[in-house]
Amino acid sequence: MTMDISTTSGRIRAWFDMHLVDHGAIRAIYNNFYDLGGGMYRSSQPSPAQLAKYQKKFGLRTVINLRGPHGYGSYALEKEACEALGIALHDIKLYSRTPPEIEEVHAMDELFKKIEYPALLHCKSGADRAGIGAALYRILHLGHKVEDAMSELGWKYGHFKRARTGVLDFFFATYVARNQQSPIGFLEWVDTEYNRLETQTRFREEGWASLIVDKVLHRE
Questions:
Q1: What is the average per-residue pLDDT within 55-78?
Q2: What is the mean pLDDT of residues 90-100?
Q3: DSSP string, 135-202
Q4: Intra-chain end-to-end CA distance of the chain, in Å
C-alpha cells in the first residue's frame, strides 16, 4: 500500500521515512548515477529533488522503478513528483538474491521497446537490481554482448558477486558458458533452456567460484 501523503502530517512522515528508514539521507549525497548510453541512466532511489534535477539536465521522460510499488515514503513522493513533472513512471519488481523469472526478462524487453527516452532505471541502492536491469538494457536494447553487459554488476556500483547477490552474475555466466558450446541468442536461451530454479540451486551448491566462472570467464 502506498503511503498517504495527502495531508501535512502524512507528507512529513513520508519525508522522514524516505531519509531515515529508507536511507535517503545517504542517497542525497551519493545517488550512484551512471549513463548507460542510448538515453538510459541508472541510479539508486531518486528523491523528488533529484528527479527534477535529472529532468532539467537530461530531459528525463521515463522512470523505471525496479523496486515495484512499495510502502516507503520514497515511493509515494517519487510517484507524486513524476506526475507533477510529466514523467512516466513504470513499476516492475526485480529481485537481488534470486535469478529473474522468464516473464521478468520479457517484461523488461517490452519496456525498453515502448518507453520514451531519456529514461532512468533504479532500485534502492543502485547496485543489484539496477545492475541486472542495466545489463538487460544493454543486451536487449543496445545489442551488447552479455560478457560486456555483465560489467553493470560490478563492485564500483556496490554489487558483490561473492555474496548472495552473486546469483545475478551466475545467471548471465550460465548463458555465456552455454553460448560458448554452440551459439544461441540470449532470449532464445531464456525461452527454451533457462531454468530459474535449477540456476538458483546450482548457485547455492557451487557459488560464484564455479567452473562456469573459473574456466569460462576466467574471473578472479
A1: 91
A2: 95
A3: HHHHHHTS---HHHHGGGSSGGGT--TTSGGGHHHHHHHHHHHHHHHS---HHHHHHHT--HHHHHHH
A4: 43
